[in-house]
Amino acid sequence: MNNPIKIAVDAMGGEDSPNKVLKGIEIHNTTTQNIIYNIFGNKNSINPIIQKLNIPKNIFNIIHTENYIKDEDSPLTAAKKGKDTSMWMSIESLKNNNSDAIISAGNTGALFVIAKLNLKMIDKIEKPALSALWPNKNGMNVVLDLGANIECNEKNLVDFSLMGSALHKSLFDEEDAKVAILNIGSEETKGNNVIKNTYQILNENKNSLFQFKGYVEGNQIMDGNVNVIVTDGFTGNIALKTAEGTANFISSELKYALNSTWIGKISALLNIKNLKKFKKKLDPRLYNGAILLGLDKPVIKSHGSTDEVGFANSLQVCEKIIKSNLIGKIKKNII
Amino acid sequence: MNNPIKIAVDAMGGEDSPNKVLKGIEIHNTTTQNIIYNIFGNKNSINPIIQKLNIPKNIFNIIHTENYIKDEDSPLTAAKKGKDTSMWMSIESLKNNNSDAIISAGNTGALFVIAKLNLKMIDKIEKPALSALWPNKNGMNVVLDLGANIECNEKNLVDFSLMGSALHKSLFDEEDAKVAILNIGSEETKGNNVIKNTYQILNENKNSLFQFKGYVEGNQIMDGNVNVIVTDGFTGNIALKTAEGTANFISSELKYALNSTWIGKISALLNIKNLKKFKKKLDPRLYNGAILLGLDKPVIKSHGSTDEVGFANSLQVCEKIIKSNLIGKIKKNII
Fold it and tell me: Which of A18, A263, B20, B53 could disulfide-link to B308, CB 3.0 to 4.6 Å?
């Protein structure tokens, strides 16, 4: 049997933690084996919950600390809180090779800063990027950067193409990675200079990791013709959140329409199976979390507001990233 | 009786023109009075259609020309095609004060360039902006810029706030205009320097046209707490198209879910009235078109792919803009 995979879990961040974190571990554990969960947090909150769950004692360690980072802490405040917070300690366990990846549902800015303070960048990558999964008609997109870097140059965007493709290959091995740059038109002449220069570089440097497909417009992100969408952190953040806002708006309008009359209520009941199928496909818990790329160890951020099912999905992302050697894939393909 | 409002209509642009344009005029005419439509285009295509429609002869003029701009023409090609195209002639009729506003469902880039060649900018406004309507939970947003200017400085964004608010007041007189800048966070420290400087200027210069509400994130655009969303043309274009793509994706998934089994089909039939209500509220024809702001005459772009109902809605936007003296409102409030 191979050595077990060790995941560092910050148990204290996000809504309803450590409850959802521990239940997420219970769910994830039923789908896999040979994982050790190194759980960082307050044992007085963790122990009463974990004792009631179906998690074998030999697959987890609790590393006790009372200090933790709050969701409302600024990244600076968080970093100053120091080395005995659950987030810092879980990241430090990567640095010390006691864990293979870290996951937290806590404060994103703090996670980003503390990870950068403790972990090395991959050689030749200048900026880390925040990436996330986003559904398309045929499967799943990787989209990056989502807010780590407000301004990016062509080298950064080229790096993002590479890192995003490596992530896509790690998670969806059977598919080819197809990269496109997010732009306001599909003609070569569109966009700002950084975008045009990135286009040139990617078009001229063929590689074995991904196919370069040129530009993609906002309305084509979900078409499924490409699956790695590259953009600067400002634009990516606006696009992701606009999609989220639009989906929420439509869901609430639909809910209202289906419930606004008696006949609506009855037929909505009849329809419940189909609507559930629909809801399941669009369930944001499926796409939960973001992956910080560019550091030489995997750092995974679960949504603060997700539940145990979402957290379990992010644990699965951790597992796939480690098993598929994401970091090795990135290093091997740096241009 | 007041002088009639004169609308210059480019009959030749977009899918299914001049058919949808003329039918759009027929629909619009049933909702209003005292409008003259100056219709520019090929009389050999226009006459056979208009004769079959219920449009009184005394409310339209056909100004014949055989030349027109194609959807695939580049803005430069379009401008070179010259002064006898239906688009050029309809814009020229504004310049000569023969019409009060121009509407076209044709080539956006060409409309933009030909309008700039023929019309003056409003004094002290440096860049024109493309604005559009976008639904929110309580009513309608004006969003700008949507692609006219890839890069904008703080003066441009301040101008957009003013022009967008004037447009919102013109279309939805009973509501207060509430401006927000699109950003990746709601704290004052977020965003790039242009955004932060715009925040400062708008925060310090109170005015009677609009309330300044600070920043809005992508997921809050449709919340209804603000109704004038200001951003550069690159970001605005990505946001609008991402929202469009998300809405299309969800609609097609929903359609699939509701039709994928017999019981689904039957209950979808029962539900049809409510789903229609839902569809109506999200009908893109309601928000059809874009308004080019910053020129000293109103230039309205209808979607190329809309139908007669969408075109009629854009004609109503023209009418409201003229009646409410949009250009005067902008001039009066320039900072």
Answer: B20
Contact B192 A151 (CB under 8 A): yes
Q: Write out residues in chain A with pLDDT < 70, as ranges.
A: 1, 258-284, 286-287
Among chain B residues, CA nearest to A244? B219
What's residue B205's pLDDT?
87
The pLDDT value given to residue A265: 63
In angstroms and rounded to an integer, the radius of gyration of the C-alpha atoms of chain A is: 21
Q: Do the Cβ atoms of A221 and B234 come within 8 Å?
A: no
**Domain identity same for A148 and A259:** yes
B283 vs chain A: nearest CA distance in angstroms? Answer: 12
- Domain ranges, residue B37: 1-122+294-325
- Of A220, A130, A241, A234, whose CA–CA distance to A178 is shortest? A220
- CA separation for the pair A224, A141 (Å, rounded): 8
Which alpha helices (H) appear in A210-232, and where do they start and end? none
How far apart are alpha carbons B245 and A240 in whole angstroms? 12
Does residue B109 sit in helix, strand or coil?
A: helix
Residue B333 lies in a domain: no
- A291 forms beta bridges with A131, A300
Q: How far apart are CA A48 and CA A189, in angstroms?
A: 61
What was the pLDDT predicted at B268?
62
Point out the residue among B222, B252, B270 whose CB comes nearest to the CB of A263.
B270
Q: Is B233 in Cβ contact with A218 (below 8 Å)?
A: no
Contact A131, A167 (CB under 8 A): yes
What's the gap between Cα B282 and its chain centre?
Answer: 16
Which residue among B242, B254, B270 places its CB closest to the CB of A270? Answer: B270
CATH code, A265: 3.40.718.10
d(CA B93, CA B86): 11
Q: Does residue A135 share a domain with residue A31? A: no
Determine which helix (DSSP H) or strand (DSSP E) holds B134, and give its type and residue range. Answer: strand B129-135
d(CA A176, CA A172): 9
Q: Which of A136, A189, A178, A179 lies closest to A157 in space, CA to CA? A: A179
Residues 6+ apart with CB under 8 A from A323: A5
Q: What total of structural domains would you count in chain B?
A: 2
pLDDT tens, position by position, A249-283 = 887 877 777 666 665 666 666 566 666 666 666 66
Low pLDDT (below 50) residues in chain B: none
